[in-house]
Amino acid sequence: MIELEGVPELVDPVMVAAFEGWNDAGDAASTAIGHLEREWKGEVFAALDAEDYYDFQVNRPQVWLDGAVRKVTWPTTRLAVVRVDNADGKGTPRDLVLVRGIEPSMRWRSFCNEILGFAHELGVEMVVVLGALLGDTPHSRPVPVTGMTSDPDLARTMNLEESRYEGPTGIVGILQEACTHAGVPAVSLWASVPHYVSQPPNPKATLALLNRLEDLLGLSVPLGELPEDARAWQLGVDQLAAEDSEVAEYVQSLEEARDTAELPEASGEAIAKEFERYLRRRDGGPAGGPAGGNATESGSSPYRREAGGGRSRPAKRSAKDAKDAKDSTNGTEETSGKPGKNGKPGNNGNRGKPGKPEADEPKPPPESDSSEDSDEE
To answer: What is the pTM of this model?
Structure first.
């Protein structure tokens, strides 16, 4: 049984989650949640029992010293609450429930049920899960971020793509489906990270996820040093690519493919929407409405109640090297990523490696078998 005696009544709460590991190329998604916690001074109010969900030989505990006292930090998933005092640019507050953790090693269904238990008790109106995958995208172009949902109504009202993916999935896909079955509106935002520079951190991808989250929820996120870090990251990759002619040639081919694919989208309407977004950000107002720039008449998210709604139940909804990579097919977000120069798909340490992406979900490495219980329904 979940008891939240120390958590106050929340205003229009939205849960935003990210998990380190397979769905977190370049640590872009988990870093985004960490940024929100720091900027809005999130207060952790709950943590899942690490014994229930993690293999400590895969995700090892960390020992550290607090003065003269030795302490242990266990790998787990923590929940924090942040209050956005000026959510709509008019002084209206809104609360976010931030979920940050590591993709569990076992009992995925129980894990998702526990997360949903918190969402129910807190009256969460919508769940947004952030993810990042490896893709054929050049580092020198804006990071593609795709908004996905399994709910046809939500896809239509918020200008999202309806998920048609079939194949192996990670905890992001499982949690999104669990929300759908529980009648909780759920969206996943996926950033595409260049496969040839997959090592974390990737501040440019983190920044892209936060910008898309702003548009989705109608919030204005304080970005701090992220824009400067993103520019420095891109300059660093530019220098590394310039030192290898084959890599530089491959990046150029990705740029040409990307520019050709997006040329029809460079319309006057698209430019006007981007300029509108810039003006709102400059004036300190919300960054926009639902994903895709389709704001409501009030300029706020369509999932907003009157203040003081309390913890009501969410309404039910119907419902190797660069040459090898160059020789293969250039892709977009809907095609598979290619391995980097070392022939390996990314480098996220012992937390799992993001595999080749397929549409809205990344594929796991062939040796991955940590989610056998998640595929059962």
So the answer is: 0.70
